[in-house]
Amino acid sequence: MSSRIPSYKERMKWFHNARFGMFIHFGLYSALKRGEWVMFEERIPAAEYAKLASKFNPRKFDAAAIVRLAADAGAKYMVMTTRHHDGFCLFDSRVSDFTSVKTAAKRDLVGEYVAAARAAGMKVGFYYSLLDWRFPGYFEPKRYAASATAMRRQAHAQVRELMTNYGKIDVLWYDGG
Question: Is pTM, for the whole model, over 0.90?
Answer without folding.
Answer: yes
